[in-house]
Amino acid sequence: MRLARMGAFHQSRLSFMRQLLRRLKAERWRFEVPVFEIDAKGEGHALYCAHGPERSYTLVAFAHDLPPEMRSDRVIATAWDATFTLFNGVPDAADIARLREHVPRQEAGRLTERELSLSRANRSTRVWDYVVERLAGGRQPASARLREVGYLMRTTAVYGSGKFGAADRDTIAHRPELASPFQVEMLSVYLTRAFVADLVEHMARLRAPDTASRLDPVLRRMLGIGNSTGLGMAPFLVNHPALLNAWISAREEALRRVRAAPSATSADVEALRTLVERAQLLVETWRTDHPVQADRLRGLRTDLEAIAARLATEGLAGPCPWNALWLWAEGALSLEGQEMLVSLMIEPHGALVDELGGRMAADEAAQGRVEGAMRLGELRGIVEDVYGWALALDWSAPERSARLWYVSEAKLEPRLGERAEDGLEPYEQPLCPGRDAALLHAALSEAPPEETVAAFLLRHPEHRHIARRAQLAARLPYAEIRDNTIDARMLPIDMLRMKLSFFGACHFDPRSDRWLRINMYQNAPYPAELAHAAADDWMFPPLPETLA
Amino acid sequence: MTWSLGELEALARKAARGAGMSWGMAEEAGCAARWLCAAGLPGGESLADLLAWAEGRDWADLRPESNAGGGRWRARGPRLCPIATGTALCDAAGSIGPALALGPVAQPLLLAPFAAWAAEARATPSALSWPGARLRFGPGGALIEAEGGAALRARHAAKAALGDDPEAASGAASGPGSPALAGATRAEIGPAAARILQAFAARTYAPETAERRLAGAGAGLADQD
Predict the structure, then answer these.
(1) Is residue A451 exposed (0-12), middle (13-18) or buried (19+ Cβ within 10 Å)?
(2) Among B128, B136, B131, which residue's Cα sits nearest to residue B157?
(3) Is A515 within 8 Å of B221 when comparing Cβ atoms?
(4) With 0-12 CB in 10 A as exposed, 13-18 as middle and 19+ as buried, what is B192?
(5) Is the pLDDT of residue B182 over 60?
(6) Which of A5, A212, B4, B151 sits at 20 to 30 Å (Cα–Cα) from A313?
(7) How confident is the model at residue B178 (pLDDT cuts 50, 70, 90)?
(8) ipTM above 0.90?
(9) A157-196: pLDDT as tens digits
(10) φ, ψ for residue B50 (rounded to 5)?
């Protein structure tokens, strides 16, 4: 599992947004908006309730009148156009009064056990005023202009899991609807998208009550909710090895099952052909100015043409045709194309793979203890097996450890710095398992192989964190990224994209090597539409002929 | 104000690192503080006092000189660090035998989580005691009794003992590794202890400079599209 491949992942059936919408649909969740009190200046609050079979959750949304000069999608911003929390249950007036004091301040505020998430969003200045103006005038915004951006508001951080005082994941992970990873965050974002679409119509209505139109439902569907993600997300993958293993294992198992299918029908060929066509539509609307990603997109276009051509000439004939398709792809397509093909191959096989979604959580506490009775000879073997790639690197070369991860005193966000910079190294975070494994290996070479890990770590507590990781990675094959996370050429956006793809994001648009924008829930049915719409066929844009 | 257990654990881990522990040992400190708070015991205070006491000392002088079973574990320095000691006894859980003496030890309450994890690893009920205090653990590691009042918060103990305790087997019904006593879902930390932990944690944060702010996260400051 190398960074370059992780940085080419796409959403799939197993993505967390898709798991959420399948559940909401299957369990017939009900949605309502009991409060929507926002004035002409754009200030006020709204409640979006989601009622499941056992419990209810409410997105509490605060809308603000933000001066343009304060609009920043950096995590270090201090004010936003809208701020949110997902409340456990339905809040009363006292809850709202309390949350009004804290949620708009985000990191500077304080949540309680009743809240599950904290997030914020800013308007897209490219389209927000334009859409309000068009709707107020009784007209629709131009589809091409909306498609260029893809959303009306863009979230930045979406915090969950006990952050800023919110409920710990442990307290809710037993609930079926929240057992899969990031379901709180995905529900919060799903309801946020609905709020944003309602808000733009509301603002148009307040501006011109007599003439205002609502958004055309087709345009409305096309709008997702944006997100801007920085470095903060990258260390998560290193800090949660058991979770990373669960995600990748599920995806690998899904691919394995599809590849093992002995034959395919003409309906399968047609389904895949249609999906390829829809994926081509997705790529056509995928905008980026980033040279690396732009180049990858050109490759992806070529790859999709190649897949379509192969389907047209060979279909899915012969024994194990999916496997044959995959083996061909490994030699014929770029990483972007290969990973898109994984998603496309999995897509028509819901009955075969969807249950794997239930295996993507991890009991991290259960993975935590060091196996002290292990002999050093065995640990050394594990290090050579798991970190062989790292042992082969020349760590004395400056470029191999040119970077370091640190936490800044401002906003306590993870950052990436240059090791050469004066005074930074003492603050280095343990986010370079490859280098640390090489150091452990060198120490093990000096120690007797019959000694126990317990005795060794008593003398060498500095190797404890990496010894624990190595033992864990020996049990969990995908726990460790097999790449150098402090290399001079390392692209943090590869780590960000990998995680975001598991969320279900698309339109990855890197803004630098360490920051990117995405779109979420584009083309998905809104909560109010979910009961009557297909809940799980929105990840690729619909073909024009199906848009009636 | 209460803290989420995740926040408390992260604060404790960073504080321990800021106080000079290795990353792996700091992880243990975070887990231990969280376990205590989840049991309704003052994990934040105990760790804060430990780190303040250890300031200026070398952690290498506070770890057990040996983790062999049978004898009494001591440090080269004045007292054992309970984090290093607990970690060592968990690592050696399979070979420490039915009774272990140790001490002098600082903040003995911080040994409790490790005693619980060792009981779980050995699937054997056990008791941890020091003058005036005793904690008992079921074979799954659940805390089934904590007696001693103020003695639980002793700043140090001349001697502590960990031993098998067949009578504690009744705790078997509790979940593995989870404190069964209070079952708190939030951490309470007194303001003084919180300040100490935050001050140690702050040592892990790099000072901000304008260059670092611009380069570190890689984005510009404006969001005008």
Answers:
(1) middle
(2) B131
(3) no
(4) exposed
(5) no
(6) A5
(7) very low
(8) yes
(9) 899 999 999 999 999 999 999 999 999 999 999 999 999 9
(10) -60, -50
Distance CA A166, CA B4 (A): 7
DSSP conformation letters of A25-91: HHTT-EEEEEEEEE-TTS-EEEEEEEE-SS-EEEEEEEE----GGG---STT----SEEEEEEES--
Six-digit token pair at A331? 């030699």
Tell me B156's DSSP state: E
User: At B62, is the secondary structure helix, strand, or coil?
Assistant: coil
pTM for the full model? 0.95
Three-state DSSP class for residue A224: strand
Cis peptide leading into residue A217 (ω within 30°): no
* Residue A352 CB neighbours (<10 A): 15
In this complex, is the C-beta atom of B222 within 8 Å of any C-beta atom belonging to chain A? yes
**For chain B, first and last CA: distance in Å?**
39
Going by C-beta distance under 8 Å and a sequence separation of 6 or more, which residues neighbour residue A416?
A231, A403, A404, A405, A406, A492, A514, B216, B218
Q: How far is A392 from chain B (nearest CA, A)?
A: 25
Distance between start and end Cα atoms, chain A: 43
| Residue A473, CA atoms < 13 Å, CB-side half-sphere | 28
How many residues in chain A?
548
CB contact at 8 A, B54 and B82: no
CA distance A413 to A234: 11
Q: Cβ contacts (< 8 Å) between B213 and chain A: which residues?
A: 76, 408, 410
Residue indicated by tokens 């009955």: A351
Sheet of strand B160-164, all strands in order from the earlier edge strand to the far edge: B72-73, B99-102, B160-164, B126-130, B133-137, B143-147
Name which of B1, B208, B218 is nearest A410 (Cβ-Cβ): B208
Distances (CA, A) of A120 to A44, A110, A506: 15, 15, 20
CA A233, A235, A240 angle in degrees (round to 5)?
105
Q: Which of residues 137-176 of B touch A (CB under 8 A)?
A: none
Cα distances (Å, whole numbers) of residue A520 to A9, A182, A186, A276, B127: 15, 14, 9, 20, 52
Give phi and psi for A6, each to the nearest 5: -60, -35
User: Which among A17, A5, A14 is positioned nearest to A339, based on CA atoms?
Assistant: A5
Q: What average pLDDT does this structure show over A23-30?
A: 98
- Residue B179: per-residue pLDDT: 52
Please state, in angstroms and rounded to a whole number, the distance separating the CA atoms of residues B129 and A255: 54
| Cβ within 8 Å of residue A226, ≥6 positions away | A121, A124, A149, A150, A151, A153, A154, A155, A517, A518, A519, A520
SS3 assignment, position A106? helix
Contacts of A122 in chain B (CB under 8 A): 223
Residue A98 structure tokens: 């309390």
Kind of pairing between the strands at A403-408 and B205-206: parallel
Q: Is the pLDDT of residue A66 over 90?
A: no
Give B 29-88 residues with CB within 8 A of chain A.
31, 59, 63-64, 66-67, 84, 87-88
Q: How far is CA B172 from CA A390, B93, B114, in A?
A: 44, 19, 18
CA angle A80, A83, A88 (to 5 degrees): 165
pLDDT tens track for B44-78? 999 999 999 999 999 999 999 988 876 799 999 99
Tokens, residue A348: 């028509």
The total of other beta-carbon atoms located within 10 Å of residue A474's CB is 19
d(CA A414, CA B169): 45
Nearest to A227 by CA among A531, A37, A499, A423: A499
Task: Quick: pLDDT tens for A353-377.
Answer: 999 999 999 988 877 799 999 999 9
